[in-house]
Amino acid sequence: xxSKLYFMISGLVFVxxxxxxxxxxxxxxxxxxxAMSVPMSVSWIxxxxxxxxxxxxxxxxxxxx
Length: 65
Hints:
Number of helices: 2
Strand content: 5-15%
Distance between the termini: 15 Å
Structural class: mainly alpha
Mean pLDDT: 93
């Protein structure tokens, strides 16, 4: 596997994760893990991190060697 392919796949996975967090924020969905309810602020933080990782992954995938 080349590094460009790795960065492309990683970037796309993080795009999907970011979109899922956007969906949760837009629908005000409740997330319960066991007996604990996950606050919406966790999705905001995860959205920022996933979007940043997606951006850098796709940027590295499109860079010239």
